[in-house]
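Hi support team,

I submitted a single chain yesterday and got back a structure, but I'm not sure I'm reading the token output correctly. Could someone confirm the output below corresponds to the sequence I sent? I've pasted both exactly as they appear in my results page.

Thanks,
R.
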Amino acid sequence: MEPRPTSSAILALLPWRNCRPSIRILKCRRWVMRARRPARAGASMTERLQKILARAGLGSRRNCETLILQGRVRVDGRPAKLGMRVDPEQAVITVDEEQLRLPAKPMYVLVNKPRGVLSSTRSQGGKPVVTDLVPAGRRLFPVGRLDLESEGLMLLTDDGDLANRLMHPRYEHEKEYRVLLNRMPDARQLETWRRGVVLADGHRTKPAKVLPERNPNEPWVRVVIREGHKRQIRETARALGLHVRRLIRVRFGPLELGDLQSGAWRPLSEGELKRLEKASVRPSTRRAAPRKTRRKAKPGTSSRRRS
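Hi R., thanks for writing in. Yes, this is the structure output for that exact sequence:
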């Protein structure tokens, strides 16, 4: 039988062996507690608390930071501090004295919103809402909006952090629409639409991609924009003397509607989710114009020439 190592031999191997005795005792206790804690399969690393709250569907990270600053969040019974890191699988997190329950994995659902359905979580005037189309049994919310008469692709999720990055204007995610007009716009109207239009509220739209579809029966156009001003496409068409008869969103960033039927839904594939997260990591940046540097004057010469 092999002899058991002595406490002094174990202490010589620890990194804090040269600390003061009181600090050494405290660190040893923590080390023993961690060693006794049973290991969990797939145990997660620590994360910032506001990120965990956002993943639980409590809003954007900024909103979750406000909850922490208001003293409404506690970790293991103690008031939470902004920026603290927590292991969500080990710590007990409460918000307004209710224990936070994180879903095992965030849910991402692509929906083809029909006309007449609100892109909201609450009904108004008895109208149906888009979240009713998905029998998920979880608190999902829509990323962005489509007005009542518009239809097409919408993303529902309970990942508040990703939703905030997808909706933030600095990321400039492309949104593509099929638009049925009352008539095909002429060349001048198309060029004006592409360059940008001043709307009735004074907002000037950013440049857009506008391409007429080859449809001899109906005047369909494809519109790609990078901003989300309220009723932007309808108001742009009105400013150009046109009228929108039907509006369908067919693409949002890397997500495409495809042949998904109206009112139907499906979960995102792993490939779609990876492309979506990749598109939300880096905000779009434009190259700044190079700065003009003044040449230093040679010693003994004036910086200005005299005539």
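A quick pointer for reading it: The chain has three domains: 47-99, 108-169+258-279, 174-252. Let us know if anything else looks off.

Best,
Support desk
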